[in-house]
Amino acid sequence: MPRPLVGVDWGTSSLRVARIAVDGQALEARELPRGILTVPAGGFAAVLQAACAGWLDAPAPLVLMCGMVGSRQGWLEVPYARCPAGFEALVAGLAWPEPGRMAIVPGLRCENAGVPDVMRGEETKAFGVLRVLGLDQARVLMPGTHAKLATLADGRLQGFATCMTGEAYALLRQHSILARTLPAQDGPLHEPAFLRGLDIAHAGRGLLHAAFSARTLALFGQLDEAQGPSFLSGLLIGEELRERALQPAGPPLVLVGADALTRRYALALAHLGLPAQTAGQEATWCGLRAIADAWEAARP
Amino acid sequence: MPRPLVGVDWGTSSLRVARIAVDGQALEARELPRGILTVPAGGFAAVLQAACAGWLDAPAPLVLMCGMVGSRQGWLEVPYARCPAGFEALVAGLAWPEPGRMAIVPGLRCENAGVPDVMRGEETKAFGVLRVLGLDQARVLMPGTHAKLATLADGRLQGFATCMTGEAYALLRQHSILARTLPAQDGPLHEPAFLRGLDIAHAGRGLLHAAFSARTLALFGQLDEAQGPSFLSGLLIGEELRERALQPAGPPLVLVGADALTRRYALALAHLGLPAQTAGQEATWCGLRAIADAWEAARP
């Protein structure tokens, strides 16, 4: 019987922990607003102990962590493994805050046109997606502040690219001239406005010009104030999908992330004729299970 | 002898006034930090009187204004004239805060792929450029918060497009994750870093991905902190020029705007093999002179 596994998804703004079954399912999960930026230096072990109260007693589980906990601002800086990277590279790159007991999965780096790109946590989620959906290859799109699209094939994460979609939305929404014509709260998604923004950006040549449409349409009364955030959201997602130039042909396209955001991307992809499957945040637990299994299998 | 002319370039953040000679040159000019956003409702006449002290006595000059003074937040909202627009349309669209004495030049609107675009003030500057440089056609690139590229031919401003380049720079510079690795002050332009950012964005597919390079290059020590603002500036200008897809063939390309910014664009255009002429801010005075002459000529 394999050793018990506690999985930890420790990001910038939140901490998720779970007891993970042999099949990768969470037996029990908790989420806390204790992202790494809330943890004082030297305080990571204590925060983790508290989050996992009752789970760390004998027989001592393996605690496997992924995410920004492995960054310079985290518990222990873990060097990025290089793409293409499979389980071997992830296992070889594990860093151990507590040797034999607690490990952090390395993030990945790749190069796109000579420029480095990085991820921490998404590599685990992407491998988990393969296992959750029973795929041997996929294009995994992970929306968020810094959205990632990863390509997996031949047991490896071959490469990926980041788009600052969520962050650009927040900047334009809160700090730009466009914010002046937007309501204080986002409200529910207005689908026609979302798709209109999507189409304008997707058919355009870039964000610097396309974003100005949110201003001019409002100026001429062609965009209702309440619909502004939906339009802007469509604009940003449309720009990301334009930049990514996804084709219908290719490995299965899978969306994974928070529900509300994933639904918007699913709507956008369907509108653009790009069918996609979806997976939930539990993909991370499956990914940690798979990495733990690979680590066990590699032990002498 | 034509009536004396006082020109007013009244924007969001500054007010420039000049006594303009028959050849379009400024005989005397003043600049004040009295942009329209600093003027209380009903206060425009008084601010203008003070700025033009000594210039408005008999024989009463024509006072011709352009810029955001004609917007909803300005002195008098002037409807946009539609492109293509020549002097006839600008004269026909003049709005008169003081009939026969003080007029505001209408801004222009056009449509790009069904989406409206607008300018206020740049139409005057662009027509002025033709006169300053003795051209009968041109592509006039006006850098700034909302940069404009206008095409002029056959005596008309045929169309234009806005890119939110300056605003996007400010948002990324001040409010984004990139700001964390940038120094407090911009410092002098570091040309190699500027051109590196330019090349990355210009060869890329869009800003959401390209902007992340500022983070990853800094992360791997491939971009010096002090060079970050120059790199980011190159990135934004490179993205604008990528979106605009300017070709070397075509009407003369002219850069007009504030000196420091115009120099950056000139550097960028030369680097990309796009020769450009430059004109100074005085193009606005020439444009106001030309519009005043057209108005005089059209009087019964």
Automatic annotation (TrEMBL), chains A, B:
InterPro entries: DGOK, DGOK_C, DGOK_N. Signal peptide: none annotated. This is 2-dehydro-3-deoxygalactonokinase. It comes from Ramlibacter aquaticus.
